Structure formats: C-alpha cells, structure tokens
Amino acid sequence: MTQRLITDLSRDELLAWVEATGNASYRADQIRRWTYGKRVSSFDEMHDIPATLRASLAEDFTFFASKIVRHQVSQDGTEKLLLEMRDGENVECVLMREEKRQTVCVSTQVGCAMGCVFCASGLMGLKRDLTTGEILDQILRLDRLLSLEERITNVVIMGMGEPLANLKNLIPALLTLNEKGGMGLGARRITVSTVGLPEKIHELSEINIPFNLAVSLHAPNNDLRNEIVPVNKNIRLERILQAADHYFEKTGRRITYEYVLLSGVNDADEHARELGELLTHRNAHVNLIPMNDVAPLSLTAPSAPRTNQFVETLKSWNVNATVRKRKGADIDAACGQLRLEQESGGDPNLHALEINS
Description:
The protein is α/β, with parallel strands linked by helices. The chain has helices spanning 11-20, 26-37, 51-60, 132-143, 167-178, 198-205, 222-228, 237-251, 269-279, 304-316, 337-344; strands at 4-5, 61-62, 66-73, 79-85, 90-98, 101-106, 109-111, 126-129, 154-157, 190-194, 212-216, 255-261, 284-290, 320-323. It contains 11 helices and 14 strands. Helix 4 (132-143) packs across helix 5.
C-alpha cells in the first residue's frame, strides 16, 4: 500500500492519527511545526519527538511527494524545479527573489485544460489534479532552497493548471499556508490566479479569508477572448467580472486583472481603451505581462514603446496598471516550459499556434 503524504493531512486529521497511536495531542502541532517551519527533510530530523512516534510516522507516511528531476538557476536568482511525482507525472514550481521578498509560484494540476493559446502548460492537455499534499510539497521543496536568512514571504498559485478547477484540493492547502501552525502567511501574501470560473470564484469567496484574487483576462471583449482563452465561449466576460465584483464586496480585496500582451493580437490602442472602459469604475489593478517566448509558439511580446503606450492609455481611464518584470527568462521560467521539453522530446507535432487577429 502506498504511504500517504504527511502534507495531505489537515491539522484535525493529523491530530486524530496522533491520538490513535496513543500519543499526546500536542504532538500533532509539533509535527506540523517541523514540517512547515523548520525545513527538515525526514521524520528522523524531528529530534524532540519520541523515537517510537517518529518510527510510526515513517511507517504510515512519506515526507515528500516528489523527487527533483531538474533544478535550474537564473542569473537574476530565480530558481525553477521540475518535480516528478510518485506516479511519474511532472510539475513545475518557481522561486523568485527580490529585495526583502521571496515569492514562490506553484502548480495545481498536471497540465491544463483551459487551452490558453500563449501558454505551454496546456499544450499536452490535462493529466490530473494535484492533491493538497502535492501542492504543499512544491512549497516545501522551494523553501529548502533558501538560505538561513531567507524565508518565503509570498505564495502565488499561478503555475501549471487552473487553480479553481482543483478547488477541493487547493482550499486545504491555502488554509495550511495561512494557519499559524502551518506556514503562517497572512492572506494578503497569498494570491490565487484564475482564468475566471465564476461559480468557483463565488465558492472561494465563501471561505471569507481575504486571499488575493488575480483574474487572467487577456482580452477586453468576448470575441477576442474566445480566441485567446477558448473556455471563455462557455463563460463570458460579463459573468467573470460579476463574480470578481462579488469577491471584492465579500473580502474587501482589490482584484488584479492579468493581461498577457501579445504583439499584434491584443495590444492595440483600441484594446487598451476597451479595457480601460471595462475597469474604470472597478477597484482593480491591471498586471500587464509581456509574452514569454515559448517554443513552439509563434506569439511574441510587443515592443517596449507599445507596452508603455498601453499603460498610458489605461491610466487615462484612471485604471492602475504595471508591467510585470520578467524573471528567469534564461531558464524557461514560464509555466510548463520545462515539463513540455521533458515530455515532448522536441516532438515536431507540437507546432506553432496561430490566432486570427
């Protein structure tokens, strides 16, 4: 029988297991502190826990869900891991360093079903959801890349997959990140990115914990968004914006709208004006993301002057907008690139995608 992941257990589930083994209940919190706060890599390193309990833990559970297949380090300090899960599937996660900030970006699915035309994650389709433990496992792996002086300050659920399509496993992971007995990160330091699944946005709002919500918009109208984000045909922008408005009303957290800039596709002045008109009366921030070069995609980022003009047009509509700094470009840090390279073996059938523009 395959051992369970220790990270798949909630505090209450771990507490029940500890008590069932005849140990004092406080041992559950000790185990969680070691797991999420002290960067150990095995149960044997939990030195203030009795040897008999450590042996029981090792018998019933495994500590990591993954093994590191590739570890790449960028010139800017960004680090990317390709992890192989116990069933042989690969996922990616990234550590991004800035002054006084260490942000990790993690995946929620193996592959993706959303079909966004600029993204490498979905080129090989969706394989499966990650478990709660497998989501947290990525954070533990990245945490152990930090020096003693560093700590994870921010978590972004923005890697491979659509997070809200795996909400049942994501919510327990978010709660562990937020709990003092887990990672102890404030809700404002945790961001969930979504292509926009209205019912799931409403479900996330019902937790009533003000996590940051980032909606991947990428187009200011339905016709264009249907081409860039195919699932929009069954969703529509209007419903996404209504759900995001509800999330803001429920949590008080300003919504971030992500917009990948694709040269000649969605970066024209008219697109900026449409987007400005759409968001001008909303408490919103636009995060503009110049397209990462992804083989085998033919899409490219616009020039710096074109990007700057897009920003200025949004500002003329009183919409806050910034351009995301590129991190880890020299190590293929965009979502899904390493997995695509690992699994396709340079498959020529993965040809460039085109958009009618």
